[in-house]
Amino acid sequence: MTEKIKVYLADDHQMLIEGMKAVIKTNEDFEVVGYSLNGMRLIEEVVKAKADILVMDINMPEKDGIEVLKELSSYETPFKVIVLSSYDDLKLVKEVIKLGARGYLTKQSVGDSIIEALIEVHNGEEYFCKIMQEKILASFSHNTQNINQVKIVPQIYLTERELVIIKLIALEYSGKMISEKLFISTNTVETHRKNLLKKLNLKSSIGLAKYAIKNNLIHF
Amino acid sequence: MTEKIKVYLADDHQMLIEGMKAVIKTNEDFEVVGYSLNGMRLIEEVVKAKADILVMDINMPEKDGIEVLKELSSYETPFKVIVLSSYDDLKLVKEVIKLGARGYLTKQSVGDSIIEALIEVHNGEEYFCKIMQEKILASFSHNTQNINQVKIVPQIYLTERELVIIKLIALEYSGKMISEKLFISTNTVETHRKNLLKKLNLKSSIGLAKYAIKNNLIHF
DNA sequence: AATCATATCACTAAAATTAGTGATTTTTCA
DNA sequence: TGAAAAATCACTAATTTTAGTGATATGATT
């Protein structure tokens, strides 16, 4: 047969390493070429071992997985990374994917899906374990939560007029333009602006604009 | 047994209606209580039929599915909606979910998953067909595409210094604060600001801030 | 009838931004 | 090494924004 695909493991739990070694041994396409119990000099070791895939825990002593990924993402590397983690936290997944990881497994699901993950990632795909797939799908729905909610209600109550003013500010209208548009004096506009700044505890009109964007007061 | 779950179908293709009726008949938990070939007076009909779930095509004559959903989302309705569509377009899914739909099936996958979708949605879950699930997962990865890309490259080339300045502006630093932070004169800061406004064809610092946000120059 | 919230406007003075022009020094790169 | 790009700074003048205080009018609420 052709060369086996080389896997390097990094996790501070020896037992998990042993477990993964055992599972990976059952598939003849892969072989474990080494492992580390911490993140120090990990990249060096992986490169030295000529591994194709690094399966790495995020929580490691000395240097954690995020740090390793950050370093990796700053230059080209000859291997791909699958991240292991105890946490099924969406933000963390997003973070590690952004930093270049190709797969994410929670530790509960390692047993079921490590081989599948290795295959997918080796084929250039990305892989998320079942739990994370479900989470991702769920977040996709929940991100679009404006159901039946016509108006977005900001945390702090703004009056109708203030809403109009802050929107125009965010739309890059100057004070004068606003006053002309609304047929009021610039003094009034300024007063509203001041009240907005105070109410929202912001320092500048740029802050107001950002507030408007964050709270979906304007289309961005 | 207890009452069956009532399903109402809306699709301008009679054959698809017949197909769905046949498939749904195989499951004794559900029954089809009516159907429409267009969107006119659809809501009225569904309510009259006391349906629990509406399975609705997006492309319908007279009044399309989006319109129906918009109307539905403006008040409470006693039934849930699963959307059928020929298109596997993510934006469309997002749109219909935002408008209150609980499930999304492409027409290719109706046969395989309509029952599954009905069960899930009836249990208060959301349901996406296989194809869409894959699309959603893929988009999740691709949205975080900055892999190995340390610097974000805006459409228009900004110099290092200009990038620093525009970021600080977007972070609500005043000209003076910037000058103090960077140990340069306010004149210089103003010059950079002017150059940025001209380069990016923007009218105000709020425009600069929005540009910085849009182009991921700052964390927002 | 009195009160409160909202919206309106005024005045002043300081600070900042905008607009335009011009110039010097550093860095980069062919 | 020489030209181009980038970064730096200055000066002027008009305009705008910020900051603070105070005042009037209107409508809703109690």
UniProtKB/TrEMBL annotation, chains A, B:
Molecular-function GO terms, alphabetical: DNA binding
Stretches assigned to the HTH luxR-type domain: 151-216
Domain of life (superkingdom): Bacteria
Cleavable signal peptide: none
Keywords carried by this UniProt record: DNA-binding, Phosphoprotein, Transcription, Transcription regulation
Modified residues (4-aspartylphosphate): 57
Cited PROSITE patterns: HTH_LUXR_2 (PS50043), RESPONSE_REGULATORY (PS50110)
One annotated GO biological process: regulation of DNA-templated transcription
Family matches, as Pfam families: GerE, Response_reg
All copies of domain Response regulatory, residue ranges: 6-122
Alphabetized SMART domains for the sequence: HTH_LUXR, REC
InterPro entries reported in the protein's UniProt record: CheY-like_superfamily, NreC/VraR/RcsB-like_REC, Sig_transdc_resp-reg_C-effctor, Sig_transdc_resp-reg_receiver, Tscrpt_reg_LuxR_C, WalR-like
Record protein name field: Response regulator transcription factor
